[in-house]
Amino acid sequence: MKTNIAIIWIARFVAAALMLQTLYFKFTAAPESVYIFSTIGLEPYGRIGTGIAELIASVLLLIPRTSWLGALMGIGIMAGALVSHLFLLGIEIMDDGGQLFFMALVITICCAFVVYQEKSTIFGIIKRFTSNT
């Protein structure tokens, strides 16, 4: 049981840390971030909005009661990133060797693991809301 809790915390921390690490680049208009969001036609609002969403998701991931919500947000945000990489940007961005794509994939996997581990909580919340209507 303790091993499972440790693995869940590692998944939460890895996903949150990777998303938080990219905030500096988004909020300081680093060339890579500006290039990405210009290419997909969402510069600057998409860059800043995505940064805010990643910040919220990261905080929610690190709070045990809301980790499921942060993980769902993380999956949604990273789905956009992965689709953008696959269809608009390419895997490699400005000679990064695919690092940003790989980070989005790792975040998605970690968040999916958290969602899977918290599925009873999520279904309980859904059941509570649907039984009241």
Automatic annotation (TrEMBL):
Name the species this protein comes from: Emticicia agri
The record's section on Pfam families has:
DoxX_2
Parts of the chain that traverse the membrane: 7-25, 45-63, 70-91, 97-116
One GO cellular component term:
membrane
List the keywords (alphabetical): Membrane, Transmembrane, Transmembrane helix
This one is known as: DoxX family protein
Query: What subcellular locations does the record give?
Result: Membrane
Membrane-topology annotation of the record: Multi-pass membrane protein
InterPro entries cross-referenced by the UniProt entry: DoxX
